Amino acid sequence: MRSAAPGGFLIRPWPDSGAPGSDLGEEGRGDLMLKCGAVLGITLICLAVLRRWIAGGACRSSVRLDGKTVLITGANTGIGKETSRDLARRGARVVMACRDLTRAEQAAEEIRRSTGNGNVVIRHLDLASVYSVKQFAKDFIDSEDRLDILINNAGVMMCPKWLTEDGFETQLAVNHLGHFLLTNLLLPMLKSSAPSRVVTVSSIAHIGGRIDLDDLFFSRRPYSSLESYRQSKLANVLFSRELARRLKGSGVSSFCLHPGVIYTELGRHVHGWFPLLGTLMSMPSLLLMKTPTQGSQTTLYCALTPGLEAKSGCYFSDCAEKETAPEGRDDAVASKLWEESARLVGLKDT
Q: How far apart are CA 182 and CA 188, in angstroms?
C-alpha cells in the first residue's frame, strides 16, 4: 500500500525479506551470498598474488657449506637471524657478531635446535665503536682458521642524532664506518680463504642519497634522520663497488643488495619521527611488507650463487642484478669516501 507524502512524493514500505512477493526472497538471498562469496574469493586470490609479488625472488641454490666459516653482523634478529639459520642449515660454522650477547645467545640456541648444527657461536661486536671493531677482528683472527663469507648485515635506521664514543654520527658509524673497518681488518683472512665473498646489505634508500665529504656527521647542516640514513646506505653501495675494484684478481668478491621492505626491529625509530607511519606499519599494511625470511633471500643469493664472481661490485634486489641510482656509480666519490673513511677509523694501509 502506498501513501501520499507532502509535495506529492510516494512513500513505499520497506520490503519484508521474509514476506511472499518481497524484493529479496530466498532466491535473492542466495544470489547475494553467491556474490559475496565471489567477492571474498577474488579478494583472497588478489591478496595471495600480492603477497607472492611482495615476497620477490627466492634463493634456489642448493650449495652446502660444510667446512666453511661465515661471519654475520647483527645476526640475532630480523633478516640477519634468518640468514644465519639458513647458512647453519647448510652446514657452515656460523659466527654471529652482535652487540647484545644475551639476545644473541638466545637466537643462537634457537638456530642450533632448529637446524641441528651445533657449530653456531656468538661474539661481541659494537659497530659504533672503533675499539670494539678492532678488538673483535683481532680475536676473530686469533681464534678462527678461515673466513669464507662476510655478511655486513647490521644497521640502524632513522635514529635521532646520536654521536658515538668516537664522535661519529651513529647511522654513518654503524651502517658504514664500522663495516668498512671490519672488512678491511679481515681482508687477509678473506684472501687466504679465497674464493670468498663480502656481502653488504644496503637499501633502495640510497636513491637520492648524497655523500657530503665536508660534513659527513651533520655538524654544520641541519640533521635529518632520513638524509643521514640515505647517506649511510649510499655509502654501503659505494664501499662495495670500490672494494670490488681494489680486490680485482684477489679471489675475494664484493656484492651489495637491497633486501626489500621488511617488518623488523630496524624500523623502531620510525614510530618516533613519523607516528602516523609507525601506526600504519603496525596495521594490516604489514601485508605489504616482506617477512624476515623473505627479506634474507637476496643476501643468501649473493652469498651462495655459483659463478657470481663475475658480477663483483654489482647491486642486487629480489635475487637479481639491478642498476643502482646514478649516485651509486660515481667512482670518484667512491674513492674519496674510501680515503676519508680510512682516515676517520685510523686505517693506515688501505
A: 11
Instruction: Tell me, yes or no, if the pTM score tops 0.70.
Output: yes
Reduced 3-state DSSP string for the chain: CCEECHHHCEECCCCCCCCCCCCCCHHHHHHHHHHHHHHHHHHHHHHHHHHHHHHCCCCCCCCCCCCCEEEEECCCCHHHHHHHHHHHHCCCEEEEEECCHHHHHHHHHHHHHHHCCCCEEEEECCCCCHHHHHHHHHHHHHHCCCCCEEEECCCCCCCCCCECCCCCEHHHHHHHHHHHHHHHHHHHHHHHCCCEEEEEECCHHHCCCCCCCCCCCCCCCCCCHHHHHHHHHHHHHHHHHHHHHHCCCCCEEEEEEECCCECCHHHHHHHHHCHHHHHHHCCHHHHHCECHHHHCHHHHHHHHCCCHHHHCCCEEECCEEECCCHHHHCHHHHHHHHHHHHHHHCCCCC
C-alpha cell at 174: 654503524
Q: Measured between alpha carbons, how far is 135 from 124 in angstroms, rounded to an integer?
A: 10
Task: Clarify whether 229 is annotated catalytic.
Answer: yes
Per-residue pLDDT tens digits for 100-146: 999 999 999 999 999 999 999 999 999 999 999 999 999 999 999 99
Q: What does the alpha-carbon distance between residue 183 and residue 137 come to, in Å, rounded to a whole number?
A: 9
By CB neighbour count within 10 A (0-12 exposed, 13-18 middle, 19+ buried), where does 274 fall?
Answer: middle
Instruction: Name every residue whose Cβ is closer than 8 Å to that of residue 285 and which is 6 or more positions away in sequence.
Output: none
Write the pLDDT tens digit of every residue in 222-279.
Answer: 999 999 999 999 999 999 999 999 999 999 999 999 998 775 444 454 545 555 555 5
- Closest CA relative to residue 152, chosen from 246, 217, 224, 232: 232
Catalytic residue among 229, 263, 301, 315: 229
Contact between 83 and 300 under an 8 Å Cβ cutoff? The reply is yes
Residue 55's Cβ-side half-sphere holds a number of Cα atoms within 13 Å equal to: 11
Size of the chain in residues: 350
For residue 70, what are the β-bridge partners? 94, 149
